[in-house]
Amino acid sequence: MEIIEVPIEEEVKQAYIDYAMSVIVGRAIPDVRDGLKPVQRRILYSMWQMGLLPNKNFVKSARIVGTVLGYYHPHGDQAVYEALVRMAQDFNMRYPLIIGQGNFGSIDGDPPAAMRYTEAKLSQAALYMLEELEEDTVDFVLNFDGTTTEPEVLPSKFPNLLCNGTIGIAVGLATSIPPHNLREVAQALIELAKDPQITTQKIMEYIKAPDFPTGGIVENRDELLEYYEKGKGYVRVRAKMHVEKVHGGRERIVITEIPYQVNKAELIKRIAELVREGKIKEISDIRDESDKEGISIVIELKKDADSQKVIEKLLKNTALRKNFPLNFVVLVDGEPKQVGIKELLQEFLRHRLDVILRRSKYHLKHTRERLHVVEGLLVALQNIDNVIQDIRSSKDTQEAREKLTKKYNLTATQANAVLDMRLQRLTSLERDKLEKEREELKSKEEYYQKLVTSEEERIKVFIEEMEALIKEFPSPRKTFVEGLEGKHKSESLVVVIYADGQILPLENIQEEKEVVNILSVPVDDVLFLVSNMGRVYWVAGTQALQGSRVSLKDPDEVIVGGFLRSSAQDRLIIATANGYIKKIPLADFEFKAQGVSIIKLSDEKDRVVKILQSPEEGHLLIYTHRGKVLRINISDIPPAGVGSRGVIGIKLEDKDAVKGIRALKDEEYLLIVTAKGGVKKISQREIPLRTRGTKGVSVISRLDSLVDIIPVRDAVELMVITQSGKVFYDRIFQKDMLLSKVDDPAKKRWQMEQGDSIVRVVVK
């Protein structure tokens, strides 16, 4: 054995470089294409091989870890389990790649249960990263002991790197990529595919800022362009909080979202330390009211404390404001490289176009192989009597194969298919099926050939895939971006309020759910929601803008209305099914505990059906299911306190109930909408002005029922929902509708299937 002498400093230097590259490539830095580190890729691949799909049963995490260790990752079991756990934590991953069952840790820093107690399976996002593996889309390499193979990278239709982000520390290198919103990333990829010359500035019109799973508010939007351009910088995030007034003139601060990767328990501990040390003297109490619905850290302030000054101290001295580093270091062609956001997107696009090309070649090959077989079967069926005779007269399979290839000009593959053909396929019906299959295969062959030869066609497929992802994952942005629409507190967004307590931006409207109201909510305002049980819930404007949900306390409870703190005047008018109405001072709604009942009902079966802001003067319409309508002066309704059930608004007939109420202006006409799809316009003067507590006039046929009455001055946009879930969008111009009398029939406007009916109308 030859001994080669090498200076020790050179040997140490080379060994260190080898070690550093091993850590960089093998552990810490993600691949730019699928955004995964080797251990993450191996976990997902193992779970996919084990069949742990989203629609399948969970299995023990210990079994998954054992499979990963045994076949692909010869390292410690705890390292594998920690990686598995992180991919299941919704406070770490914007789009978790694993669905966990059991204790997977918490935002308070609580550790997960041991792997023998927890269970897991793949999420839908992970499935989109794996599903094309069997179509020769990526290269496979030998595992650590050469007994099997593993994918070098995943096909990754889901843009995981930017959507979930990553953090890693290697030898002399570190990476830190924050999570982003899938809708924004997919849209940016679509625009990049259409225009390769797109600038980073244009990209950031789509990718507005990071979108952390824990929410928060991005403060330095104006600086992000420079950081995203060079792939290095930071994003400054602060917690979402608001101030509530409580009895006795005191205030309290409620923190509802904290910066990404901040330990909630440690945060509360730090605030308590500041109070004990006398650095923040204005705080009298702090408590954690967080539950499964979200974070709620309540900070009680002393009387006469300045809440804004306390907030400034908290932001300065705690992790309620945090700088998250941006350091876009990734593996590009196996080498670590610092890139900007455009190059990240370009590399993903390049990867996906390569996957689509390889997938198309794979399908083209298999389509041609099947077409070749089908054409051979059809030749045999056209000469079936002679073919049968030739096969019967052959002494063995080899002789039969030779006869078929020579006599009918078939290939060996086609001849084998004919010999394997069952007798049942000799029917004319089977021949028709084969001819139909041949035409379909020719069409597929043409399609795949076009994809193989044309990058333009592959780009079209990529765009279609991204558009499909946007529909599959329509999650609204969780992190609010300060200064995105302007630097004033008057920033607002139109949101949809649903009966189940969910609030979503209008762009994410879900038509299958019952819409209660559509409102424009300013960021610095508060949205109050009232339920049919008389309970009141509230949501800070910043939460409403990003999508939120209140936790209703009863299975039969639904939201019936909402209003803004700033736009509501002195009182609200509340109507109940039993015909009672009352005006309640707005101050009675001021930040009660969530779900507190402050509207007294007439009896246990009574329910709140409608709320509206009370004008100082004017008229109020009260209308019932059976089409009875009463018009009264708003001034006739006396103010009522929380403990009062109010006064009788309309006298009801047997088995009738109040449907709703509307405030009127003198210049408005009324659109009557019925369950059978009828609409008519009447003058409000057709409804006589009466005193409260009297019966109304009938405005519809006894064979129909009243759905809604909509005041209209010029035009109104409606979303009309039927019992079967069908939705009609309609704009009705007042001038185009003839004026009717109260007893005129409503004319059918929306064509519905027999048995269907209108159940609600939403004014957009």
Automatic annotation (TrEMBL):
Main EC class the enzyme belongs to: isomerase
Coiled-coil zones: 424-472
Active site residues according to the UniProt entry: 117
Reactions performed catalytically: ATP-dependent breakage, passage and rejoining of double-stranded DNA
Domain Topo IIA-type catalytic: 29-493
InterPro entries tied to this protein: GyrA/parC_rep, Gyrase/topoIV_suA_C, Topo_IIA-like_dom_sf, Topo_IIA_A/C_ab, Topo_IIA_A_a_sf, Topo_IIA_dom_A, Type_II_DNA_Topoisomerases
Keyword DNA-binding applies: yes
Similarity comment: family membership: Belongs to the type II topoisomerase GyrA/ParC subunit family.
Protein name as it appears in the record: DNA topoisomerase (ATP-hydrolyzing)
Lineage: Bacteria, Pseudomonadati, Aquificota, Aquificia, Aquificales
